[in-house]
Fold this sequence. Notes:
Blueprint: H1 5-13, H2 16-22, H3 25-39, E1 45-51, H4 56-60, H5 65-75, E2 86-92, E3 97-102, H6 104-107, H7 112-127, H8 131-149, E4 165-166
Parallel strand pairs: 1-2, 1-4
Antiparallel strand pairs: 2-3
Amino acid sequence: MVMSVKRIIKHLITGNIAVRSAFPAHSLLAIERAIHKAEAGHAGQIRFAVEASLDFGVLFHNQTASERAIDLFSQLRVWDTELNNGVLIYLLLADRDVEIVADRGIHSVVGSSVWEEICIEMESAFHSGKFEAGVIQGIHAISGHLQRNFPRKSNSANELPDEAVIF
């Protein structure tokens, strides 16, 4: 695999200050509230994780944002829901790349092209500097699919934390 020097430089100069700038405390709280409110309308589970950059070791091995999102999907146990309907929204700031990883229950009824379309819409908002709005827009779009396919039942539990995760 060929390492991209440009990508490495972007990752070296993108630090946690970039995360705090894009997602100040009030934005993280608004995202948490949006997840909580959205999950009140369906039985699905949504997590949001943001990472400033990747460590040099994984960059050296050319790990993609998609591969990192899958790692975090597992690490955050998004796959560990009763109905297999967890969805992770992952943002790698250095690459300005959004990835959505959905568990098999929801992914089997909502294909990859739908997730990619939501990612593109979110990335468009991010390019305009609208990070909070972009994430909340993504949460609403994902929730629409979860509401159609996993309607809330009276015994639906909140299986995963709603707060944003910063790596």
